[in-house]
Amino acid sequence: MIVPTLAGPGVRLRGLTPRDVDDLVAGYADPLLQRFMPPLPVPFTAGQAREYISDVAPGMFADGGGLWAIADPGTDRLLGGIGLDKVVPHRGQCEVGYWVGPWARGRGVATTAVRTLTEHAFHTGMARIELLTHRENTASQRVALATGFRPEGVRRAVLPNREGGRDDLLAYARLAGDEPGPTERLLPDLPGGELTDGVVTVRPLAPGDVDFYARLHSLPDVVATTVPPVAPSRDDMARRCAWAQSHWLAGDRADMIIMDAATGTNAGEIGLYYQEPRTGQAMIGYSMLPEWRGRGFPTRAAQLVSLWAFAETGVARLIAGALPSNLASQRVLEKAGFRREAYLRSRLPAAHGRRTDDVQFALLAEDLLADAARLDG
């Protein structure tokens, strides 16, 4: 059969050929691909690659979808693969999937390939294209957002994994009538990957922070301010770290580590929780290791995060709460420019089925401007 060749900036989508066997084997040997493509045989042999080219690819076209090689337009070397399957003709619906070999990553190959193929699919009659990805696969989520796919939710236990269980996948979709261009993000990346004032540095929480996060969230006084006030399990904390980037991309939460700028030592955490995008209100919360308390770090971190939120996002109002007994946290907020607004009775769950009051503070962008003007004066 004749596979239509599709051209995009820096890529060419073409049919798979026998000369792609070695690169196909090399690509499918990558642990990252094996992690996020559990149906993939491990090891993937040259014989399986030839069968993939001769049988699997034509079968996908016969089912109304298709499978293309992502090739370098200059050398024609295989860079990855992309396909359309799960076709439902009477709905005009299908699913897009893709992979890029380690030798071709960081060049925008996947983004260009997805954009090129989805536009081709829409022009040939598709009305809706879905993209499913593991929550830990933030590179794929970035591709989805960059190509105009919008997050729709979670497909629970939709994909069998190698351990005999089933994985949840995040669901993204793009419609033929959607506006072109990337999907707007509520929470952009930090400029340069971090915020700093020379004393404190704030960076995103990462999968490698599990040990630090576990120590911090095992402290009794930190657990007491958790909602609900129950110590998370090690698995819960590992998931929090592994999924932090995904939540950031989704725009619902930005989890960050507070570090000593001089040494790079982890000292605490601070998070921004985008509770009400429609009203432009978000909440911040923070915790510090005991040995780093009393140095003004959370105040500096709160100021850095507040400035970033007001300058780079749609947040117009930041709120924060503190237990009535937590005078140190209240002082942190006041020094960071927050103003006390309310005393909310029995707002939060407490230990042993009880409830506790919450002292509420708020910060507006104009508060920061007023404070800056007063200091300049």
UniProtKB/TrEMBL annotation:
Organism for this UniProt entry: Actinoplanes nipponensis
Q: Where is the N-acetyltransferase domain?
A: 11-176, 200-366
CC per GO annotation: cytoplasm
**Any one GO molecular function term:** protein N-terminal-serine acetyltransferase activity
Report what the protein is called: N-acetyltransferase domain-containing protein
